[in-house]
Amino acid sequence: MIIAIANDHAGVEYKTELCEFLQKMGHTVINFGCDQTTSCDYPDYARKVTEAIQSKRADMGVLICGTGIGMSIFANKQKGIRASLCDNVFSAQLTREHNDSNVLCMGARVISKELMFDIAKVYFSTPFSNDERRLRRIKKLEE
Hints:
The chain is α/β, with parallel strands linked by helices and 143 residues long. The protein has one domain (2-142): 3-Layer(aba) Sandwich (Ribose 5-phosphate Isomerase B, Chain: A), CATH 3.40.1400. The protein has helices at residues 12-24, 42-54, 69-76, 89-99, 113-125, 132-142; strands spanning 2-7, 28-31, 60-65, 83-85, 103-107. A five-stranded parallel sheet has the order 2-1-3-5-4, sandwiched between helices. Strand 4 (83-85), helix 4 (89-99) and strand 5 (103-107) form a beta-alpha-beta unit. Helix 1 packs across helix 5 (113-125) and helix 4 runs parallel beside helix 5. The radius of gyration is 14 Å and the shape is globular. It starts with a strand and ends with a helix. The relative contact order is 0.17.
């Protein structure tokens, strides 16, 4: 799987370690993130990930900021993006199974690195259930 990842200044360390983790899982990672801890604007980086998914250069994405909230708000305003802010493994599993989420958002100031790895592992290994009611609901989201 090709995963596009980006972060703002608050998520530099988490993004760096998550890139390595995802590569060890066998994924190809495209890093669109900020590499400095000086303040920057998260929409500039989130846009790169959403555009990569929209153009099919990436299959899925990860966005990391301080809380994950700003990134998820931005991403969900973009056509074809179903971003999910996850701070636990159960939500990561269900958003993939039920919503076919294609962007995982996390907060570097909210969760531990260990939890980030657990969430990412479950998120990227859980398939969409692809049943009729889930497809119907996703279609309504797209409308």
